[in-house]
Structure prediction request, 153 residues.
Amino acid sequence: MFDISWGKLVIIGVVALLVIGPKELPAVLRQLGQWMTKIRRMAAEFQGQFNEAMREAEMADLKKTFDDTTSSLNSALDPSGFKTDMEKLIQDPAQLDSSGATSTPATPPSDPAAPLATPATSTPDAAMPRPDPAAGPALTGEAPQPAKPVTGA
Prediction:
């Protein structure tokens, strides 16, 4: 805590012995020890109160986050709200179109000659061209075969 070496402490002790005297030095040191104990106790109490306040603030923040999450989850999973939304859609189907939801049209394009789009595949085999077996072994990825000897008939 303080940058006091042993040599400095010895000097302070000798000066205290000379100034206070050997008769009263034990009482002074005892009083100094009691003050140090009180100071340490007060510091520990302050630190405990500070840590408790931090825990309470953290718990309050966690509780608020939990309550917000719970309320949003309850409102999203509320069956009565879903039921009333479905009843509104059943009573007024035009409301679905005016709600601004964008979806793909259910009718085919107006130009019957236009080609239909094919869905993209996510497999890597579909994107790679197939090798031509007539192209030879170098293009197909096979090991080259040694030439067969020609026999005369």
Remarks:
- The CA atoms of residues 137 and 146 lie 11 Å apart.
- The mean pLDDT is 75.
